[in-house]
Each structure stands twice: as C-alpha cells, then as structure tokens.
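Hello Y.,

Per our agreement to keep a running log of every chain we model this quarter, I'm adding this entry. I've kept the format consistent with earlier entries: sequence first, then predicted structure.
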Amino acid sequence: MQPALAAVCCFIAYFVVYRFYARHLGSRIFRLDPAAITPAHALNDGVDYVPCRRMVLFGHHYASIAGLAPMLGPAIAVIWGWLPGMLWVVLGTLFIGAVHDFGALVISMRHRGMSIGKVAEDLIGRRAKGIFLMIILFLICLVMGVFVRTVSGLFTVDFYPESVFPTFTLMAIAMVMGWLAYKRGISIVRLTVVGFVLMLASIGVGLAIGRPDLTGEVWILILLVYAFAASTLPVWSLLQPRDYLNSWLLYLGLATSYIGLFVLRPAFAAPALDTQPMDAPPIFPFVFIVIACGAISGFHGLVSSGTTSKQIDKETDALAVGYGGMVGESLLGLLAVLACTAGFRSAESWAEHYSSWSTANGLAEKMKAFIDGTAMFLSSLGIPMELAQAFIALVAVSFALTSLDSGTRLLRYNLEEIAQSVGVRVLGQRYVASTIAVVLIGFFAFYEVEGQPVGLALWSLFGSTNQVLGALTLLAVTIYLRQKGRNYVYTLAPMAFMMTVTIVAMVINIQKYWVEQQLLLGVVAASIFVLSVWLLVEAVLRFRRDTPGTLAASGD
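Predicted structure for the entry above:
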C-alpha cells in the first residue's frame, strides 16, 4: 500500500467514527447538557477558572496535549514497521484515547473542575486520591524534565537554533493578544490573523539573524524561568492565547505536510511489519507502550481535568474539545509514522537509521528523523529544505513548550492538592507550589546518574507509567458511569485492555532491570507497579460495593 492511500483510509476512519460513535457517547452515554452551569462560570476567578470560547479552548487543549511525545513515540515504534504503529495510532485513538480524554474532561467538569486525583477520591475513596497524586507527581516531573532537556538540545547549534527567535517571539505575540482580547475586547479573529502573520514572519527573521550560541544548560535555566511564569500568570494572559496561536501553527504544519505527502507520493522505505528488530523488546506489549501520546495518554487526562475542565463554557463543547482534540493529536502521530517510514529517500537509509533498538531509541535523533522526513514532504511544494526544516522544528519546539507550561501548571495544582491533603497550607500557595514544581522539573532535567540525566535514565518508564495512568483514569470514568446507571462497557473494555498491556509490560521491565542490576529503574518501576495494583484493588472493591445507579438521583 502507498503512504498516500493509507493516509486517506485513516482520514475516512476518523470522520466516520467521530460522526457516529463519538456523538453517541456525548448524547446517550454522558448526556451532555448545553444548559448546565460549568465550573468556569460557577467558580470564575479570572486566574484558573475562566470561560473560554470553544474554538480558543480547542486550540489551548490541543496544543497542551500535542507535545513532543506524539512525534517521539511513533518515531521509535516504526522499528516494528509502519503498519502496527499506524493501526494503533488510529484505532487506539478512536476507541480508547479519545474516549479517555473526553471521559476525564466530563467527570472533572461535573466535579467542580477538580483533577482526576480529586475526582478519584469522590468516586473510589480517600486512598485512591493519594495513589493518583503520587503517580501524577512522578509522571509530570519526569515528562517535563525530559521535555526541557530535549528542547534545550534542539536550541543548540548542533540541531535547530534558528527556531529560538520565532519560539520566543510567539510568546510575546501571545501575551499581547491575551491582553487585547481579555482587557480591550478586540475581535479574536482580527488578533488571530495579525498574530499568525507575525509568527510566520518571525521564522524568516530567525533564519536571517544567525544562531545563538548558548549551552544546553543555559537553555534549561531559561526554560524553567518560562515555566514558572506560565504556571503563575492568569490563563488568559499567556496559556490560552499562546496555545491557541500555536494550534494554528500546527494546523498549517499538518495541512501542508499532508498535502506535500500527496504531491510527493513517496513509497514506504520501511517494511510493513518486522516482529524481531535487532535487540528490540517484543512487539506485544511494547508497541502499545512506546506509542502512548498519539494513541492514549494518561497525561491527557491531567490536562482535561486540570486546566481544560476549568475553562469549558458549555458542557456540549466537551465533545469537540476532548474527543476532537485527541483526534487532532492522532493526526500528528499518524504524520510521525509516515514521516519516519516514507520520509527517507531509500530503504537502505531507513534500515541504517533503524538498524537496532539502541539506535532507534535516541530521543533527539528521532526528533531529527521526524523533522527531516516531514520537511521532505514540504519540499515537494517548492519550499526550500532549510526553511521547511526551520518551520517543522518550530512546530515541534513550540508544542513541547505548550506541554511544558501546561504541565508545570498541572504540577502546581497537584502540589496544591497534596498540601491540602496533608494540612500544610503554605505549600499550596500559588507561587510556592510553582517554585517547588520548577525545582522538581529541574531535578529531572539536570541531575545525572552515571553521566546520564536522571530524566533520560528513567524515560523508559514514561510509557508504562503514562499508560497505567490512562488505564486508571478510564477506571474512574467507568465507576462514574456505573454509579450513574449508564452503559459503562465503552470505558470498561478499553480500561481492561490497557491495564493488561501495561501490567505485562511492567513485569517484563522489572525482570529486565533486576537481571541488568539497574537498581534505580527497578525500584521506581516496582513502586509504580505496586501503587497501580493497589489502586486497581481499591477500585474493584468500590465497584463491587456500589450498585448501578448510585448517583443517578444526583443529576448529570
């Protein structure tokens, strides 16, 4: 099959399933009510709880979930061939990932915009909240630390330093847009047009002004300062406008990349299936673990229940934002599969790049494979290769930073909830919690174990931790639906699949770490495994104790 034809088949699947399956979930299962008062209105504080237009909120949510991971995961997983990754990215999204994101958004929206950890306390019990918060704390610190480290590397002269100027110009444009829209009431359409033109112009300026020569360590410090500011400023001043403007950048990047694919009509340089690449783990269950974001990601549940649920204007907006936003990320994951399998000039060059698991597992190198492969699609439209690479690098870096600012804010919320639980109120203060969040992220970015940053050393745990959090979030949604007397098979079946896959992967990894005497990885992996099983037992006990329809009388 040709890549262009495969892409068309995937587009058809997206349209059909969203048109029928997603709408069925919204109207019949979750019963979205356009007249319901959302937390954004009931708790409007001008900082975190702020009603937002559906179009703007979709952009904010989309940009927050679409970080580096939907590009990195598929770029590694294609070592097993293009077919497994493509099927998982599309079908996993439509029947598992999008359901997860949408469900997390709805139950948070109906629990005062609380995080999934706090919602779990209400649905499962007090111990469930503590377990959720511990897993969330580890996951966000690890992911954001690795994102900071990776982006700092992409800013250096060895990779794509021309992306520095447009990246920081975008931040300035977004802050001006936020002030003009929120304080002056200027039309968002006008601001979008002007802001987007300035953002595109900044790419050319970035290429012309030269390459800043700063070390990766300096860039890490700069990014941590930015993360602190993004975590503490009101959402309307930076988070909403930056993510919204970023989403238009991604729309343009996706559209031009897919058009370039159809114009170029390349062949697959990778095989459809390779079940035994050199020194790679078994395709089952690890293809489902390596590709987390882009198919299903527990991190998305944190975004849905952490920031997005506090900004929903109407309940009915949740379908387009939650389910539709995940479909949008799947399009990015699908592009990554195509770029890293059809974006090579020959089968020989692909085979050299993916000669073994150890070479395929490098993060910066895989980002380069995605950027260069996608730039080749763009070059078929007459865009110079250097400009195409700068544009795609900007897309990649910008979305890593949107995940960083949203992730730091989510970590702040998580720390505030922990502080509330243990009764240490000072730790729940916005600036104190943000400072602790930035320090923890910096630890995972800077601290080294045997010459390697601890975040990168633990990166192999990201997939399993992320997926188990996704499974546990689906478990919370399942309990919610059962208590409401709804058909919960739509979340129970994907939860059971993801829990099985993740537990198998965790057991294999723990055995591997034990044999290789990797104490740090083994202890952390075993701890997450124990917490996950513990939470699963708590949920099963609650599931058996409740009767269907327990909460039916309390409304939707």
